[in-house]
Amino acid sequence: MREITPRKIIEMKGKEKIVMVTAYDYPSALIADKAGMDIVFIGDSLGMVVYGDESTLNVSMDQMVYHTRAVAKAVKRALVLADMPFGSYEISLDEGVRNAVKLIQAGADAVKIEGGADHYELVKKLVRMGIPVMGHTGLTPQRYLRLGGYRLMGETEEEIEEILRDAKALEKAGAFALVIEFTLSDVAKLVTEEVSIPTIGIGSGPYVDGQVLVWHDLLGIYESTPPFVKKYADLKSMIQLALEEYRNDVKEKKFPGQDHYWEFLDKEEFEKKKRRAMERLNRSERNGEAE
Ligand code: KIV
Which superfamily does CATH assign the domain made up of 6-236 to? Predict the structure, then answer.
């Protein structure tokens, strides 16, 4: 069992901010865990940042299981959370349960679903089975077609009511935390005050119990990022510079240098071995032809 459990995440509310980051492969997850993340999250954002899709709607259960396996192998301390992709939990309760089980069997400690009130029964059932669940309200990217794009949420009283209803339903169903994505900060603050479970914000301001960011956004792997992201590094430029240097080194015959290859110190010994190897090769080719 990993050190950070859903129970520990709940206990952090009001005491210590929760830090969550996405990771989609083994090396990134190793780094995220070593950097002291509380939650390492295999988000369905991988459809966009890893596979180059325009939305998360095409992400399959197979993709989520595949990436969850890689991340779970790396993480020793943080809680490993896996996203339920679009279409994997909405069709029936049974299908939702079956798919959540797949993610747990791939090594996740908990699953995340988008929405709240609509999935009350599923969350309750999963929790009763022993599968910890995180909810997600505010901007829910799996519903971006209905929402009319990736936009700020919580401006109208209807939206505030819906967000609050989701949060309260998740709390009642036994979810251990919820993500609040891209809402006005007042709305995120209200939700944080209204529920006993931790709220984890993304683009929703500081009045929440924790923050989550997408790996590629915070590390500056793409030029364009959502407006609420703080870029902590410019890896795109660093990687590009490194690749250009490598290219130039190869073209200019500077790589591999003497530290990067091995040769026979005794050239006579090599000549002898070469002669014998070639004789053996010729013999076996002649024998092959004779057959
Ligand atoms: O898939 C994802 O990365 C997410 C975060 C934006 C919370 O759901």
Answer: Phosphoenolpyruvate-binding domains (3.20.20.60)
